[in-house]
């Protein structure tokens, strides 16, 4: 995969990603399921802004499902912030990978969803991404640069690498 866009300001970055995804969406709006691996991605050191991710996806399609998976150690403040951004919060008593993978499989077999977007760095979700592609779903990974699995990166149709200082790079499996 070759990097497609890197930009500075939020306005420039959103325009760049809209342009990139927009070229591939055709006239049909995509129906997106957005699933977030909270313990893996919602960390202070990554500065992940879920609002920006939602905004990036808006011109590509409509977010029909938005779920953030958190473990029992999530603070009430974090839970409230996620809910205030319009996400459904799923709290797991242990690791969030299994509940998130189950939700992902439900989205793969949901005819009302044609795009699966995951916010994670975890290679454990590679089989989910491969199954989604096998079933004809478009896949998008949003991952922090630090620790982003190469296997996961190479399995997805599109990858948005979120960097420090709110910069990012977009990679796509298709060129053009």
Detail the topology: elements first, then pairings:
Elements lengths: L1 E4 L4 H16 L4 E8 H4 L8 H9 L2 E11 L4 H9 L3 E5 L4 H12 L6 E5 L6 H9 L3 E7 L5 H6 L2 E5 L5 E5 L4
Parallel strand pairs: 2-3, 2-5, 3-4, 5-6, 6-7
Antiparallel strand pairs: 1-8, 7-8
Second-tier CATH architecture: 3-Layer(aba) Sandwich
Between the first and last Cα atoms, what is the distance in angstroms?
12 Å
Q: Given the structure, what is the number of helices?
A: 7
Helical fraction equals 25-40%
> Main sheet, how many strands, which sense, barrel?
8 strands, mixed
Q: List the helices and strands in order.
A: EHEHHEHEHEHEHEE
Give the neighbour order of strands across the main sheet: 1-8-7-6-5-2-3-4
Class from helix and strand fractions: alpha/beta
Mean of residue pLDDT values: 85
Shape by Cα distribution? globular
Whole-number total of structural domains:
1
For the record, what CATH class applies?
Answer: Alpha Beta
Radius of gyration from the alpha-carbon trace, in angstroms: 15 Å
What portion of residues belong to β-strands? 25-35%
Number of strands: 8
CATH topology (fold) name: Rossmann fold
- Low-confidence blocks of residues: 1-8
* CATH superfamily membership: 5'-nuclease
């Amino acid at each position: 995969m070759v990097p497609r866009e890197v930009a500075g300001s939020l306005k420039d970055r959103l325009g760049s990603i809209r342009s990139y995804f927009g070229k591939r969406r055709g006239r049909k709006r995509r129906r997106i399921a957005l699933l977030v691996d909270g313990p893996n991605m919602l960390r202070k050191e990554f500065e992940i802004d879920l609002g920006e991710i939602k905004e990036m996806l808006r011109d590509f399609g409509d977010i029909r499902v938005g779920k953030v998976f958190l473990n029992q150690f999530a603070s009430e403040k974090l839970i409230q912030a996620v809910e205030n951004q319009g996400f459904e919060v799923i709290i797991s008593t242990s690791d969030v990978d299994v509940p998130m993978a189950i939700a992902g499989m439900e989205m793969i077999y949901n005819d009302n969803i044609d795009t699966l977007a995951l916010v994670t760095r975890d290679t454990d979700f590679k089989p989910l991404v491969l199954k989604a592609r096998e079933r004809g779903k478009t896949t998008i990974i949003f991952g922090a640069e630090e620790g982003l699995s190469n296997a996961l990166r190479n399995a997805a149709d599109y990858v948005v690498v979120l960097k420090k200082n709110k910069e990012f790079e977009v990679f796509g499996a298709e060129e053009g």
